Amino acid sequence: MRKFLKWTFRGLLLLGIVILAIGLWKREELTRLMAVNSLFSEEKIVNNFSHMDQAFLTVAVPRGNGPTSPLPYGADHALPAGADAWVEERSLTSLLVLKDGQIVHESYFKGTTAEDRRISWSVAKSYLSALVGVLLTEGAIESIDDPVTKYAPQLVGGAYDGASLRQVLNMASGVTFDEDYLDFNSDINRMGRVLALGGRMDDFAADLTEVFAPPGETWQYVSIDTHVVGMVVRGATDRSVADLLSEKIIQPLGLEYAPYYVTDGVGTAFVLGGLNITTRDYARFGQMFALRGNWQGQQVVPADWVEASTAPSAPGGAGYGYQWWIPDGSAPGEYMARGVYGQYIYIDTARQVVIVTTAADRQFREPGANQQNVDMFRAIAEEL
Questions:
Q1: 294: Cβ–Cβ under 8 A, 6 or more apart, which residues?
Q2: Are residues 25 and 57 in the same domain?
Q3: Domain that holds residue 20
Q4: Residue 167 contacts by C-beta under 8 Å, 6 or more apart in sequence?
Q5: 32-88 per-position pLDDT tens digit
Q6: Roughly what angle, to the nearest 10 degrees, separates helices 2-25 and 27-37?
Q7: Distance, CA of 173 to CA of 314 (rounded, Å)
Q8: Quick one: 86 and 25 in the same domain?
């Protein structure tokens, strides 16, 4: 009996050492997985959204060595009635308003500051769209009607085989993808675990096989479509999205702080939602679009792409362009970049108003939340 207990103890000790060794070996992956599981918890969400680089693999998007292009300050404007309650209800962490390129309101909430590089979530999609417009003009991408497999051959034989770049930009790929953030086993959450555990996003996209409609027939918001756009960009140029975005978009804007992308395990940027930028620097991008792609005399994004990408071109009358949202009842030139949990860049071209919000709104999916935000953006723009 004593001998049996001795060997049992040794076995348990050895098992413990093995478990500890595996834990140390996979410590970073386990840390990231734990971060994913608590990313949106009430007590951590605000801090997490300002410090994604503390939990995930990242890659810098260099701002270059040029000077910061200043955002001048104009006369401070009071917000419309009900704005304070809106800020509280929608859990805003920052609010910045530009009128004619001047800051007329800037506020930070919940302990955040102007230096915080806040996670964009799907606002990042509009940045990638802008990059596509530049590459089209330069000829690296020949046409948005090219099949995505022309530039991303890994997708041959999968769900994206037969879809064009235009259809994917429009979120009309027809690919089956469950975007329910509240379902642990949804595709969007499985993708998050691939990201956390150091997997390859390209493999995740290529392994999708199911479609619910022919490409171009039906609009349905499918975030993995944006990753496929990123695959096209990388395949067309043989360069990373981070480097291209830095050269073509970020450096010309003269940002205050260098952005960064969350990445997968092989350094591929999480282009569908992993860009991290300060509120003022989000505003610079919005102002460039409000000026039809021009920034301080330089045409950063082609004007015809600004117009085309922000028009409601998706099938079925959806208020969606090429990775930009067009709210119901919008006037010409009124559109927005939009991310989960309350991230927005709202642009009213006619009034030359740009509004940026970052938020930690855990009720962002409740009925009327998005419309409440749009209504407040419009009220702010009208008062200016």
A1: 288, 300, 303
A2: no
A3: 1-37
A4: 173, 174, 215, 216
A5: 666 667 889 999 999 999 999 998 999 999 999 999 988 999 999 999 999 999 999
A6: 70
A7: 11
A8: no
